[in-house]
Amino acid sequence: MNYYLNTELIREKFKFTSSIRHNPKTELEFLPYNTKFKERQYNFREVVGEFIRLVGQKKLPEDVNSDDLVDRVLNTIDFENMNQRSVFKQMIKTLFLDEHNQLYLFHPKTLYYINTAENENKKLAIFLYNVLWNQEEPLAVENIQESSYDLMSDLLFKSLPELCEITEKPKNYEMLLPEISKLFIQDFKWLLTKSDLFTLQVEKMVSYYYFFYVSQLSLRNEAMFTPFEKEIKPIYFTFEGEEKLSKTRVSYEYGWRKLEKTINRTFSHVNFLKVLNLSNGGSIYTYQDIACRIRNMPQEELEILDQQVFQLMEEYKNKLSGDIKWELMGTVMRPYDIPVLNNMYLFFNMIDHQFNQTGRSKPYNDYKQWFVHFCQKSFLKSRGRSGKMLILDTDYLLFFTKMIIQDMPKIRLKKLFEEFEARGIIFDRDTQTAIVDYFEKLNLLEKKSDSGDAIYVKAFL
């Protein structure tokens, strides 16, 4: 059989015999969220510190205390008097510690020593390691091409605690989008060849790829059993340099407005994917994977699977009939040409409906808020009557342009926009014009003619 359900395991995990329990803890986890959203969440500096350690298979034996670190540096030096020690102590703090008394990230190696105190940040780092690094071989950032240390930096590095090697690779989350992992590894490894740029921009890169993965997963989930024409379905961004943004723009309708609708049903999709993947096979399938396998099943096996889904759906419906008005669902369309896919589609809509009709709406909304809140802090800006829109600022634009050009002297403008699209970012015509104007102000354009195919963006430092 190409695909089947372990109905007894589903009943056990989701508590069909007592009271339905949604999002049970299983070995199948798709996102690092829970149903108790915290307003203060995701410090991406902490996330990156843990992520870099996971990539290098290293572990901090202890948190780095800045006062202890300064004392260790001072203890390696012989001073003639205490006044010299005090002056040197102030010099070390000025050179290596920021206004929050945290270590400056002045070299790739310093990324290892970012303390990751909050559990949510550790969970997100493990999630990103699982879905972006995807079992790639360990990579140590201190092995990248770099200039030799100066004397002061050398003193600091010798005083930092020695990192522990770890052999076990954490595996908590299922990677469903290998094409994004492939792109990330490609970009990450190039960035690693640029020591200073890596140190300054790796947080920005990891932050965007987090958005990229979750947004693409949401779009895939919302399509359910309909095949995707392209592996990556880009989302419209606008550029912060644009003055006029209206609701008539393509970037409004197919930017955040569209993405938000898909994000809203994240919790329902996570629950239903768990239902569909609780089988004896051990493989993890997306909706599209399941549809592909179902389409290749013989008729008799299709009928058995359809009966399983129908039975589970009826039990689920009856178990929740006490506080659910199922008639408010209305008629759910049957968009597929195979009955079992239509029943699965109906089952998903039942799960989503019951969250929105009871007190279970709070965990439903809290679950998605982890990602929505991140977007609000990172890529969303309010543009008056147009509401919230996805905005790419100048820092992101220049960084991604640099990463796409890599070591080439220049790139065709058309090719540049294609590479942005491959990374999930698409611009409408007005935004492209605004970006071209911005590049022109920076003297980054080289025009062979007025044709778009003959305009190049030059490499820059």
Considering the chains and any ligands shown, give keywords for the structure.
single chain, 461 residues, 3-stranded antiparallel β-sheet
Written description of the protein model:
- The mean pLDDT is 90.
- The longest helix is centred in the middle third of the chain and has 29 residues.
- Helix 11 packs across helix 14.
- With 461 residues, this protein is mainly alpha-helical.
Main-sheet strand order equals 4-6-5
Main β sheet profile: 3 strands, mixed
Rg over C-alpha atoms, rounded to the nearest angstrom: 26 Å
- Nearest-integer average pLDDT: 90
> How far apart are the first and last residues' alpha carbons, in Å?
56 Å
Instruction: Note the beta-strand portion.
Output: 5-15%
Overall shape: it is globular
Coarse structural class: mainly alpha
| Strand/helix succession | HHEHHHHEHHEEHHHHHHHEEHEHEHEE
Low-confidence stretches: none
Number of helices: 18
Q: Please tally the β strands and state the result.
A: 10
Percent range for helical residues? 40-55%
